[in-house]
Amino acid sequence: MSTDSGTHDAAPGPGGSGEHGGFDEVTILWISEGMSCDGDTVSLTAAGQPAIEDLVLGLVPGLPKVNLYNKVLSPTLGGEEFLAPFRAALRGEVAPFILVIEGSVPNQDIIQGDGYWTSFGNDEVTGEPLTLNWWIDRLAPKAWAVVAAGTCATFGGIHAMAGNPTGSMGLADYLGWEFRSQGGLPIVNVPGCPIQPENFMETLVWVLHHAAGTAPPPPLDHMLRPQWLFGRTVHEGCDRAAYYEQADFAKDYNSPKCQVKVGCWGPVVNCNVPKRGWMSGIGGCPNVGGICIGCTMPGFPDTFMPFMDEPAGGSLSSLLIKPYGAFIRRMRGITNAAVNREPKWRRNEPALTSGYDPYWRA
């Protein structure tokens, strides 16, 4: 699948400048050869607001023409045909371009002697595999924007767990948190295991509007996540949050009540999935009876394991809220019972008991 994406810079490059001083055409080079399962690309195909097809076909108003190169979505047979735009970018023949990295970045320096953790194509002269690190080192400094797709790419994820032999890390850990692209942007982190499809597409569209010169840079938090998507906690958007307030906790996973006591980390995890759902507004972990295991967070998964145990602090917070919640639940129960009765004057009797008394009557 081929699409173009635009970049925004003081001096527009080969993509040409649009009416707002941005770019008319941009290329997206997506490398998913990081330590991952390609789940982020698979999740991306479920996006609908907009769909990746809409981006490729130019159906989103105001965006540059987008050329997308992603191995899962590519119509090529692979091999050198697929690698051609990536090699062209190395030679400076593709600009502007957005580099998307999927999967965590292993540490090649810890390997003593021959070998590599993951590769993407071969050296044209020696035939030796080219590591992911080799590509990042050469493409990231040339990219107009760099986007990390999924928790593995943003923070290291599962492959960066304690005890791993690969030394895996997130893209910002590898390039440095102060890294700035050719477009003056920091790395844009869109975490999720995998990415929530609309979250990623919404972020990409914002970056493309910025490339077109029609929007400011996307606002990011201190972990380089889009603020408007990750500025609130799971708990703040959860349908079960009122049960927490009333200290009414689930004891098993079949209950519709708050799941903090059975392992949910929602009160402290930055994620919007309960509000947004997963596909077409449907799903989202707590919405369908699952606990939040913190997959959008920098410490995932180590900080949140073992997943089914009550979170640290959960015992204290639930204990403190218990007397308040019990009182509130009781008071609301009394009021609920009161407002679930019909007024006493609604009776089929000869005398009017509603209190109706026109003042003009003698």
From TrEMBL:
Ranges for region Disordered: 1-22
Domain spans labelled NADH:ubiquinone oxidoreductase-like 20kDa subunit: 37-205
Any Pfam family the entry gives: NiFe_hyd_SSU_C
Cofactor(s) the protein needs: [4Fe-4S] cluster
Chain ranges of the Cytochrome-c3 hydrogenase C-terminal domain: 230-307
Compartments, as annotated in UniProt: Cell envelope
InterPro entries to which the protein is assigned, alphabetical: Cytochrome-c3_hydrogenase_C (IPR027394), NADH_UbQ_OxRdtase-like_20kDa (IPR006137), NiFe-Hase_small_C_sf (IPR037148), NiFe_Hase_small_N_sf (IPR037024), NiFe_hydrogenase_ssu (IPR001821)
Gene3D superfamilies in UniProt: Cytochrome-c3 hydrogenase, C-terminal domain, NADH:ubiquinone oxidoreductase-like, 20kDa subunit
Keyword terms: 4Fe-4S, Iron, Iron-sulfur, Metal-binding, Oxidoreductase, Signal
SUPFAM superfamilies reported in the protein's UniProt record: HydA/Nqo6-like
Chief subcellular location: other
Family the UniProt entry places it in: Belongs to the [NiFe]/[NiFeSe] hydrogenase small subunit family.
Subunit structure: Heterodimer of a large and a small subunit.
PANTHER family membership: HYDROGENASE SMALL SUBUNIT (PTHR30013:SF5), NIFE / NIFESE HYDROGENASE SMALL SUBUNIT FAMILY MEMBER (PTHR30013)
Full protein name: Hydrogenase expression protein HypE
The organism of origin for this protein: Streptomyces andamanensis
Lineage of source species: Bacteria, Bacillati, Actinomycetota, Actinomycetes, Kitasatosporales
